[in-house]
Amino acid sequence: MLSTSPVRAFPGTADLLGRLKAGRIPVVLATSARNAGALLASAGLGDVFDHVIDGQTALDRDVAGKPAPALPLEAVRRLEIPPARAMVIEESVTGVEACRRGGFGLVVGIDRDGRRDRLEAAGADVVVEDVSQLDIGLVITHPWLLVYEGFDPAHEGHREALTTVGNGYLATRGAAPEHRAGAVHYPGSYLAGVYNSLHSVVLDQESDDEHMVNIPDWLPLDLRIGDGGWWSAGGLSLRSERRTLDLKRAVLSREALLEDDAGRQLRLLQRRLVSMARPNLAALETVITPVGWSGGISIRSGCDTDVTNSNVPEDASLSSRHLGSVTAAASVDGPGIACLTVEARTVTSGIGIALALRTAVSGADGPAGSGIPEQLGGLHTHRFELSVNAGEPLTVLKTVAVASSRDHAIASPLTAARAALARAPGGFAALLAEHEAAWEILLEPFIIELDASSQAQLILNLHVFHLLQTLTTHTAELDAGVPARGLHGEGYRGHIFWDELFVLPVLNSRLPSLARELVDYRWRRLGAARDAARAAGLKGALFPWQSGSDGTEQTPKLLFNRRSGHWMPDYSRLQRHVGLAVAYNAWQYFEATQDRGWLTEHGAEIIVDVARLFASMAEFDPADDRFHLRGVMGPDEYHTGNPGDPGGGLNDNAYTNVMAAWVFDQAVWIMHSVRGFDMQELRARLLVTAAEIEAWEHLSRRMFVPFHGDGIISQFDGYAALRELDWEHYRRSYGLIERLDLILEAEGDSTNHYRLAKQADVLMLLYVLGEDQLIRFLARMGYAVTSAQMAATVDFYLARTAHGSTLSRVAHASVLAQRDPERAWAVFREALDADLDDTQGGTTSSGIHLGAMAGTIDVVQRSFAGLRITRDALDFAPRLPVELSRLDFQVRYRDQLLAVQLERDRLTVSAAPGDAAPVLVRVGTQRVLLKAGQEHEFLRKDR
Q1: Which of the chain's termini has less CB crowding within 10 Å, N or C?
Q2: Beta partners for residue 887, in sequence order
């Protein structure tokens, strides 16, 4: 049978085995199968394992099977190592239990069918869906430290993204300073809001594509011993390496032991920060200590100006050189100090960028050496020739200031960069002290403490960290939006999508001034949105699905499928619901702050123009007395049209229709609730008439919502007529099937034919509005929907979602929390792991998924704590899963800073002292008007 139906190895497994073999790491297969040799030969893995212990061997040697640990213990016996020094990968719960009993150093569980909780309960240290997600060097020992041991080229890009440090203005990937960009390393640095467009031709289609710009690389720092080869060229080898991202201090450190061909060793310690105190400033400190020898070393420090946007393999066919007019000037400013300035300009958008760098070298006797200017192509450096003594450290401090012509209150980028560098305090310790102080102030209100596993706490802390590396008070000065992939790489070209829907709830409840500025990014681009609407023959404002510098549509026309090698049409610009998210975000900011001045000046204008867009899109059908929206895409993204009509759009996407009705309702409320001179001025400025308000009121009640079966909300009209997908077949054939659109296209098929979803679509209504509000709103629209129907709707779509977006599990965890907290916790854990385990098949190397990271933070407060901001109160409806017994966090609500402590039997809310007005806090039927400085405890019996 094996000759006709060969065994298919999971690609991730085969890849890991190949990497282990290349690294000369011995691997043993222990299996109960008696024909292991034949199975391995059929799978093409016959020579991969150092030893194979199969069922026949176990039988011959009387080795007990699971749940006894005898079989894996026999494996390490053959390797002649103790179990504590071995990693074991196991798929079964009983196998994990056996390995835990055997005392193995690392037990990895493989979860291909939703058994994470059981594998963790059995003793798995790490659980992944596929071994391709396994980073063996990840060390989890402390909830505030992300640690990587050793070097793994297959995971280097992933690690670089996750160890990015930034301050909301500037961010730099956690790349090794000795390496330039290549197949393994990518040392990118990015400035928030700095974009450039380049002209490209792909498949005879011309396009102008806007990207967030990779600026000159300020990191380069290379070493050599004597006249040997440079570290970057292989002249020094890594004997050990440990990288630690300290989330509590926002510092990336690296410890390494280097050795040359003669056996001479250098101990290296590096610390890196991007200053939260001074947004234009970053620093890299390197301490080098010879181990047991004395002699000469060379240090090369500089800036690489030969940079392109090359972080995304799928964009390799596009033009990538965004910087022109590059100049560099080197100078020596005294013993041990060398300076370098670099100027460049984006070739189309004309944004000037300048870097001013200072390298200071010092030893036990003070400044050391003199920098010799060198140029190696686009790499401009200073070389220091130095003598070192055994055991005596040599310190290299590299400080950089970055400025752009988008900055405020500057004469030029170069003068601004020089001035920022001149103002920088001397020494890394002083830079670190002010940076840590500023970071602590920013971080404090965002900390969420869980009574859960250290891994869950670490990942949640990591998500808070990266949210605040991307968006800070410095961002508020820049007119920059919410980049979906952070400032951590070039994924999605640095564009702004609808991810702020998941991000702003966290900021509204902690840093509302920043949330306001991020919504104002949209308000400032209303002109472009109105132009887009007019071009489409519509009224109001048509916001783009992908936005960059000026608010015009930046969604690419083509999408590359690595599975098939084909370029596919990208129809995602049909997702008109992005405007609904913009309006929702504006309204949520107002509800959190009651900032009526902002509402009348900015927020209402956004909401009114979005209402006008959907009013002009709505088509009335007298046969059912309903309004319909045609030719759109929902959040799902896998359905671009009806079968046979790709890109034709869909009719009556339920999420879009209901949220359009919701926006109409908010527009009416604003027009009836804002009174006096402000309302007169607002209506006059926006030319709002009584007839238009009446039309919005009617639309808010008569939008069509499709249903099928026993009252299940249909994703769109016609969804019920689609075919069911053979999910088991695709899981068996492909393992990870999140990107079913690419899989099916490679097979000559299309997702348009099937009942499936890339991510939450109908269920986004529950995520955004909550079940109670959604049921009430549907009733207002004339649809009587019961809680049982909602439960059936949830189950229907949970079973048909591929989770091809990191946002999907965030929404599902939130939706599940109200009715099944334990299942919600399991999905939440999967959402947490999206970037740490790179569950989207290698995409994290091109940037973190900011919406998903912020979304997990929001799930904790919105779903497990049940926090909702309403028009008149702060509502709590806690639903803690059994895995979570305590939760502590802070929120800011209408000028009150509130500390929330949730336990199984009580909820305590404490208001900080001050003069802010009292706020209403509601838990079930219990209502308390909380004044500044007061505390109230809600007991379980009160709920």
Answers
A1: N
A2: 450, 902
Alpha helices in 166-319 (DSSP H): none
- Higher pLDDT residue, 680 or 555? 555
Q: How far is CA 288 from CA 187, 251, 385, 400, 935, in A?
A: 22, 19, 14, 20, 53
Q: Name the phi and psi angles at 268, rounded to 5.
A: -125, 135
Integer Cα distance of 42 and 37 in angstroms: 9
Three-state DSSP at 802 gives coil
Mean pLDDT, the chain, integer = 93
Give me the mean pLDDT over the 421-446 stretch. 97
> What is the C-alpha to C-alpha distance for residues 37 and 7, in angstroms, rounded to an integer?
12
Strand 126-128 and strand 106-110: the pairing is: parallel
How far is Cα of residue 281 from the mean position of the Cα atoms in its chain? 24
Residue 850 and residue 486 in contact, taking contact as beta carbons nearer than 8 Å: yes
Three-class secondary structure of residue 7 per DSSP: coil
495: which 2 tokens? 């564009």
* Best CA proximity match to 514, nearest among 479, 539, 487, 541: 479
Dihedral of the CA atoms 54, 55, 58, 61 (nearest 10)? Answer: -100
What is the distance between the alpha carbons of residues 339 and 335, in angstroms, rounded to a whole number? 12
Long-range contacts of residues 893-900, Cβ cutoff 8 Å, at least 24 apart: 893/509, 893/592, 893/869, 893/919, 894/592, 894/593, 894/594, 894/919, 896/930, 896/932, 897/445, 898/874, 898/930, 900/865, 900/867, 900/876
282 Cβ neighbours under 8 A, 6+ residues apart: 165, 170, 172, 218, 272, 273, 274, 275, 399, 400, 402
How far is 184 from 904, CA to CA, in rounded Å? 48
* Span 661-679, pLDDT tens digits: 999 999 999 999 887 778 8
Q: What is the pTM for the complete model shown?
A: 0.94
Tokens of 373: 């200017």
Strand partners, 201: 206
Six-digit token string for 861:
């407060």
Give the tokens for residue 691.
Answer: 């007839």
* SS (HEC) of 47-83: CCCCEEECHHHHHHCCCCCCCCCHHHHHHHHHHCCCH
* Each residue's pLDDT tens digit, 688-721: 999 999 999 999 999 999 999 999 999 999 999 9
pLDDT at 6: 67
Model confidence at 903: pLDDT above 80: yes
Token output for 153 = 């080229």
Predicted pLDDT of residue 4: 57
Q: What residues are labeled active site?
A: 637
Q: Which of 435, 417, 439, 415 is nearest to 425 (CA)?
A: 435
Question: How far is 716 from 755, CA to CA, in rounded Å?
Answer: 11
Rg for the chain, CA atoms, rounded = 29
Angle at 736 between CA 731 and CA 742, to 5 degrees: 95
Give the chain's end-to-end CA distance (angstroms, integer): 62
Please tell me the predicted confidence (pLDDT) of residue 577: 98
Whole-number pLDDT of residue 943: 42
pLDDT given at position 44: 78
pLDDT greater at residue 412 or residue 68: 412
pLDDT higher at 320 or 14: 320
Q: What residue type is assigned to position 395 of the chain?
A: T
Give the contacts of 176 (CB within 8 A, at least 6 positions apart): 185, 187, 254
Q: Which two tokens stand for residue 319?
A: 């033009």
What SS3 string covers 304-335?
ECCCCCCCCHHHCCCCCCCEEEEEEEEEECCC
Which tokens in the block code for residue 108? 């990895």
To which H or E segment does residue 732 belong? helix 727-734
The 10s digit of each residue's pLDDT in 570-610 is 999 999 999 999 999 999 999 999 999 999 999 999 999 99
For β-strands 707-708 and 28-30, DSSP reports them as unpaired
